[in-house]
Specification:
Layout: H1 2-14, H2 18-25, H3 35-42, H4 44-67, H5 72-87, H6 100-110, H7 112-127
């Protein structure tokens, strides 16, 4: 029962629309599909804050699951659900972000070495 509550909580954490809220806090109307881009255009400081919160969502859920001694399978499922929450938030009547930053920190926090190895082709492609 605790595992199910943890996974649902991960979804709700992922659903927090911090970028949307920061845009509204700045007094701007929402326009366009990429909320991160919109926030960066309003304020680089708020853009960085929104991005850091995205990163913290992914890593935070994984670290919390480890701290609470959940099995790896439960922690991985919670990581998946935090990404799902980011992409399809329950709090908004629109789709959320792409989930790339949240998914990256989930993958990195779950298993560092495979993540670094997977980055090698990406870095080679970028340097090409």
């Amino acid at each position: 029962m605790a595992a199910i509550a943890f996974i649902i909580s991960a979804y709700l954490i992922g659903s927090i629309p911090q970028v949307y809220l920061l845009i509204r806090l700045k007094g701007s109307d929402i326009h366009g599909n990429d909320l991160h881009e919109h926030l960066w255009s309003l304020s680089h400081k708020l853009g960085a804050i929104g991005f850091i919160i995205d990163l913290a969502k992914g890593a935070g859920v994984i670290l919390l699951g480890r701290w609470l001694n959940f099995p790896t399978e439960t922690i991985a499922m919670a990581g998946l659900f935090v990404v799902v929450g980011q992409m399809w938030p329950v709090y908004l009547l629109r789709s959320g972000g792409g989930g790339n930053s949240v998914a990256s920190t989930v993958a990195l926090t779950l298993s560092v070495y495979p993540f670094v190895i997977a980055l090698i082709p990406v870095l080679i492609g970028l340097s090409w």
